[in-house]
Structures are given as C-alpha cells and as structure tokens.
Write a structure and sequence with these properties.
Two copies of one chain form a homodimer. The first copy, chain A, has about 325 residues and is of the alpha+beta class. Chain A has two domains: about 5-150, PurM-like, N-terminal domain (60s Ribosomal Protein L30, Chain: A, 2-Layer Sandwich); about 155-325, Alpha-Beta Complex (Phosphoribosyl-aminoimidazole Synthetase, Chain A, domain 2), CATH 3.90.650. The first copy, chain A, is built from eight helices and 14 strands. The first copy, chain A, has helices at about 15-30, 70-80, 100-120, 175-185, 200-210, 225-235, 250-260, 280-290; strands spanning about 40-45, 45-55, 60-65, 65, 85-95, 120-130, 140-150, 165-170, 215-220, 240-245, 275-280, 300-305, 310-315, 320-325. A seven-stranded mixed sheet of chain A has the order 9-11-8-12-10-13-14, with helices on both faces. A four-stranded mixed sheet of chain A has the order 2-7-5-6, with helices on one face. Strand 2 of chain A pairs antiparallel with strand 1 of chain B.
C-alpha cells in the first residue's frame, strides 16, 4: 500500500518522530539539527547578520526544472544573498495535507537536500504540521534563513544614487512560464524550465571584488522586474530608465507569453538578480557574472536618473517611453 | 462592503504593498522592518544564538483567551526561551485564504503586536501569500525567531543527569481543552482558556540566578508532558519518575477531559515549561517561578533516575507505576 502522510504525523508524538527520523533527518542530518530540541544553537562572531523568510505555495508543486522544495531553499538563500549576506542556516516549516504520498514528500526533501548542498547552507531547525484533506493544497513550505554580512558589504536602497548602472543577470519570465504552462496543461517546448537556482556564490563573487561599487541587489520574483524597479525608484528616490531592446527574454518564453497574454516584465523569476552599481564597475561586474552559468546572459539594462524621482521608464524598441508601474491585478497567482 | 483578502494581495505588486502599508506595518513598524527589503539586517555581538521556527494551523483560529496570532508569537518566543536564549527578532510568514475578512486579519495582527511588545521582540521580516478559497483554512502563520544566549547559560539534553528534579511551571491541558472545546461547540466554563503566554521573562529570571543549575527546559506543547518527558528520557539516557498527585490540572479542565476522553498528560500546553534542575536549586527555582503569574502554580513533579534509562514512570495516586510513552494516535489535531 502506498505510504501517505496521516494526521498523526503532525501530532508531535511517536509518528512525528518516525517521520522525522525515517524521512526528514535522512536528507537534512547535521550536527545542529541532530539534538531535535526546540531549536538550533550556534556560535556567531561580532558583525552584521541578515534574517529573512518566505512561504511557498506554488501550484503545481512540480514543474519543469524544479519543485516547491527547490524554490523553498533557493528563494531564502537568494533573499539572504540580496542582503549581501553569506547564507548559513535555514529553518524549514512544512504544512502537509493528509494523504500526501510519502514518495512526493521524499522527492521534495531530496531536492531540498541537493539545493542546500549546492548553496552551502544547513537546515538546522524545523517543524511539520499536518492538516486534514482539503485544508491545504498538498504541501506548503516556509523557510527562514540567517546569514552573515561581510564587513565590506553595504547593501541598502539608500545607497542608490543617480547615474548608476542597472545590471540584470539573465532572461526574464522563465520560472513563471514554466509553472503557468504546467498548470494550464500546455505542452511546453523543452527549452522552457524554471530558472530557480541559488545565486549566493555568483553574488558572493561579485561582492568579493566589487563590494564598494554595489549599492543594491534585488531578485525580481513576485511582481517581476517592473515591480522591483518601481519599489527601488520609490525607496531610493531616483528615476530609472531601462531599454526594452536590452531585456533578455528567451524566444520560447516570449511565444508562450504572447499566447497567454503575459508581460515578461511582470513575471516572477527565481534565479535572477538586479544590481545597482557605480558605472565604473559595470564592465567588471558583467565580466564576473559571465563566468557563472546563472549569469552568462547578464546585461546592463539601463541606469538611474536624478530627475523623474520615483518613476520607471521603459525606452521601447520603437523609441517611445512607456512608464512602468508595480504589478496591479494578478496575472499569475501562486507562482512561488 | 466588507473588505476581504483577495488573490492580488499576494502577488507582490501594488495590492501587496497596500496590504503591507495599511494593515501590517501599522502593527509591526520598526526600524529593521521599515526598509521592506528582502530581509532584515542587524548587528550581532560575538556569542551564541538560537534559531527556531514553527508553523501555526490551529482551528478554530480564535478560542478562549487567544487566537492564532498569539500562538505564533508566543510559541516561537518560548522555543527560543527553551534554548536559554533572550528572544530578539521574529520573522512572520502569512498564508491567507482568499476571502478572509480584513477584520479577522486585523484582530490577529493586533494580538501579535501586543504579544511581541509583551515578549520584547520585534517582527523584522515577513512574507504574505494568498491562496484561492479552499486551498487553505483561513489563515496559517509561520514564525521563525532568533535570540542570543547569555554566556552563563548552557541548555542541552546532554546536561541532564540522574537525581535531578523536574519542575513543571503550572497546570496541564488548558490550551488543548480551550481549543477543542471551542471546535466541538461546547459551552465551556469561564475558567477555561488557553495558557498561551510568552515565558521568556520568567525563564530569564530563573536563568539570571540559577543558570548553572538548570540543565534543560522544554515547553510541553504538541504531544504534551508525557511525550516531552519521553523524548528527554531517550535523548539524555536517564529514567524519569513523576508523581501523579503532584500534577496540577484545573478542575474544569479535568471535567472536560473526562467528558471527551482526553488524558491531560498528552494534551498541548502553550504557556508551560518543564525544568530539569539540580536538586540543591529546586527551592530557589520554585521561589522565582512563584513570583510570576505564569509560574504561580509551579511544582516539583518528580526526578530523574540512573536506572530505567529511556523510561518514564508515573507513580499513580493509588500507588502503582504506569509506564508512559510518547503520544501515539492523535487525540487532538491542529491544536497549534
């Protein structure tokens, strides 16, 4: 008989322990998680830390190139990286639906293990709740993470100034199109898959050389590039101008977008980063990015302006300026 | 028209910002949360930290004496306190159901604000996802937390030895009975309400005086006192003997338990702590606990043994010994 999650797996008793020992610890075992106390304890040096969290409710939980577990590890790793931090420890809270197959859970756990290894982080504390059939949609995951910020790194919207270059690490829309295409049952071209990846090593390489020249980094997830740029224009009080012709969108992604009526500027990415850098560092940052798989299509997409504070303009291919704004009504719910 | 949560409140765009600005920031505003970046940044001193997480899926979300927001703050604060840490920063991830009334969310947020103030912690980073009607049950909350462990404090199962006293800070079963009674639509006596409370100040007062004599602390939440004692007997490799006659159970709680067939030893508490202390410190620890509302019924319930490693015995009122074990099949799902 297929082994499935039962309500008792979440009651904190013998069955919870069994789930932990037989399934979860197998993938996440480490010295800090081992004691299975009410949390993890670890030493820290004096300095600065970053702390972040995200819940993941993507549907379907599996899609080309990844699954909810990949998002849960990479998303929080990347949020730490966007703070300039070296990601170190993750927590993991599962909310599982009664009846979820253990095989599905195992696949998600395996992916999380692989991604945590790749990113160089440990999952040190966690929690599992089980709810009745229908009270949740299969599996939701929350991760929180902590990381340590090197002394040389100062990432903040307040450091963004006029005449900084804006670098995008790669193509737009891959993740959202992979998820939505799967949800709609489309037969997607093989080239389409999520861009979900841990970005901390690439970002760390940029900061190791160019920390003083990097004012801000953001990963354009929910809301897409346009929303992130609008947020930064607002918080940093600069104008932003980007050029449509520079924006990388894979051909197959563009086709699906035009079929479904999506604008790649507003689609979620899970393996991209936007850098605001001093112009003198632009070439050097691009050179570093191009040495990474995740950054091989990196490109300068525009720059900040002293004028037009709080506004984001897109210079279109035909030459006009389209004012962008944050995402309004939803195109694509439950994308991450 | 009643204002409700819509899917667009979770899309990361304009409506997400509005929800954040108009509703969430109002309650949680602080200097670290303010930048609304991908996480919070803060300074740390050299030392040890604790890191923990829990997801909350309690149903119903409101019950006598509290709601899911109270649990979400106190639960994570208490897990940090059980590590001997001074809780400092919390993250908060909401998963909201489309159609949830804004009034309900406001009530939960208000409670979280009050509890965070009471515990002396700040909610510094967060995330909100919205899922379609039916894909979640109203509101789920994940909190993770970090805290700093004073140098004098060393809390670990490995420090538990034979002949230590076991102190319980108060009565058993109040939380579970308050939630389950509400779920079943019982008319509960006024005396029954959740014991959910932040325990960090009380625990901190004990550790300030008696850190060297406190080997381990645990809050008997899911699985109840019996499960927690069994876990400790296993991990510390000691025997445990507790006396039934010492166990505080409020009369009305005991009545509901006997009606519903619950054993208070296996019911979740949300404002209780079990201390394993050196015997010479027992009186002093009890004296400190008795000065707190949350500890005024604290009592020594038993002690550890060199023999019977991994076993927990209950000396019953009639004189026999009943062997306890972890909670097996569930009595009460979705209690926190």
């Amino acid at each position: 008989m297929e082994e499935v999650i039962r309500l008792v797996h979440g009651n904190g008793g013998r069955f919870s322990h069994e789930l932990m020992e037989k399934h979860i610890m197998k993938h996440f075992r480490n010295a800090l998680l081992e004691p299975l106390h009410d949390g993890a304890q670890f030493a820290v040096s004096a300095g600065r830390m970053a702390f972040t969290t995200d819940s993941y409710v993507v549907t379907p939980a599996f899609f080309p190139g990844g699954n909810i577990g990949k998002l849960a590890v990479c998303g929080t790793v990347n949020d730490l990286a966007m703070n300039g931090a070296v990601p170190k420890y993750l927590s993991c809270g599962f909310i599982l639906e009664e009846g979820l197959s253990m095989e599905t859970l195992e696949k998600v756990l395996t992916t999380m293990e692989v991604m945590a290894d790749k990113a160089g982080v440990s999952i040190v504390t966690g929690d599992t709740k089980v709810v009745e059939r229908g009270a949740v949609d299969g599996i939701y995951i929350n991760t929180a993470g902590v990381g340590f910020i090197p002394d040389s790194v100062h990432i903040a919207p307040s450091r963004v100034e006029a005449d900084m270059d804006i670098i995008l690490s790669g193509s737009l829309g891959d993740h959202a199109v992979a998820v939505m295409g799967t949800r709609f049952g489309l037969t997607l071209p093989e080239s389409i898959h999520t861009d979900c990846a841990p970005l901390n090593h690439m970002v760390g390489a940029v900061l190791a050389k160019e920390a003083e020249n990097v004012a801000l980094m953001r990963d354009p997830t929910r809301g897409g590039l346009a929303t992130v740029l609008q947020e930064i224009a607002d918080s940093a009080q600069v104008g932003i101008l980007i050029k449509e012709e520079t924006l990388p969108v894979h051909e197959d992604v563009a086709s699906v977008c035009s079929m479904l009526g999506y604008d790649p500027l507003y689609l979620a990415n899970e393996g991209k980063v936007v850098f605001f850098v001093r112009r003198e560092a632009t070439a050097a940052v691009l050179d570093i990015l191009h040495t990474f798989d995740e950054g091989k299509e990196a490109v300068c997409i525009g720059h900040t302006l002293a004028k037009n504070q709080g506004r984001v303009g897109l210079e279109t291919v035909v030459g006009g300026i389209r004012l962008l704004d944050m995402l309004g009504e939803d195109q694509v719910p439950r994308i991450c």
